[in-house]
Amino acid sequence: MAAVGIGFAVMFFARVDPPQEPAPRARPLSTQLDALCFVDANGDDAPDPVLWQDGKTRGRVVAVDGRSGQGIWASLEIEEPDALACADPSTVLAGGGDAALRALDARTGKARWVANLPGVPDEIAGGDGCATVVMKDGTATGIKLEGGGAADCPTAPQPSAITGNFWERKKNPQVVQAGGVEVVLTVPAGGPPRLTAEGRRGSESLWKKELAARAPLSGGRPDLFLVASGGAAVVVGVDVVNGTEPRIIALDPASGAARYERAAAYLGDRLTAAKASGPYVYVISGAAVSGAALRAIDPATGETAWRATTPPPPPPPSPSPSP
């Protein structure tokens, strides 16, 4: 009788996970408005920009990581967004066409309170525990930051100092302190808006020079952008020949010498804001039709450090409990 050998094969099946969907790419942040302020929105002791996302008819207030440009939080949508201010380190104030003022938590973007106003807010200026709100009809009111009740706010700037279309960038001259020197940027009252910079210490003029740049125009009037950052006075203007291509010029405060002059066509044909906070110069610029972007500019080189991306949308509000 023949012997038959039987072999046993043992098979091992490895678990294979299905391929994961790639993480969605963050969408570049777009804004139609020029409002820009700063809070510490993520607790890293660095200034984080706060601005409107979208903003033509509806928009959200968003906070962006000042180190990376990634969105941190977004508020619920607000109709006809307009006024925006970082009133204190923990409070962002935002107003829109519904004649209401919202106090948003600087760490989360959630509304703490909503106050009804006598008109549509146009400008907001923070004071010590309060804020002044200027309406589009020119009237003004004071608001407590704790609770939103009406109150006088003598520590906030006077309404006359913060009124007028694009009042911040229409100031002529613009003045900053850099390296112990007062740097002044001006354009002539008439004719081509060629930029001139001057360094002063007290009543003494240290230097004065005409720059290879013009002030961009909006509403038929020049916009002046001057900030102090990285030990330099940084000017954002446009080229002299056509008056359309943006230029970034960093001036040594003591001598007026140009540390660099950089063409910056990537900023687009519309400059709306330039502010300095922490290590960067933050510029809102872009196209009039498609919206503007927020970029962080390294003041030492004039190069872009990052372009802001949108934060995730907030969760929908919880339904009101049934009576």
From TrEMBL:
Chain spans, region Disordered: 300-323
Name of the top EC class for this enzyme: transferase
Keyword Acyltransferase: yes
Domain Pyrrolo-quinoline quinone repeat as annotated: residue spans: 58-143, 202-314
GO molecular function: dihydrolipoyllysine-residue acetyltransferase activity
Family matches, as InterPro entries: PQQ_b-propeller_rpt, PQQ_rpt_dom, Quinoprotein_ADH-like_sf, WD40/YVTN_repeat-like_dom_sf
UniProt cross-references to Pfam families, sorted A to Z: PQQ_2 (PF13360)
Name recorded for this polypeptide: Quinonprotein
Organism: Sorangium cellulosum (strain So ce56)
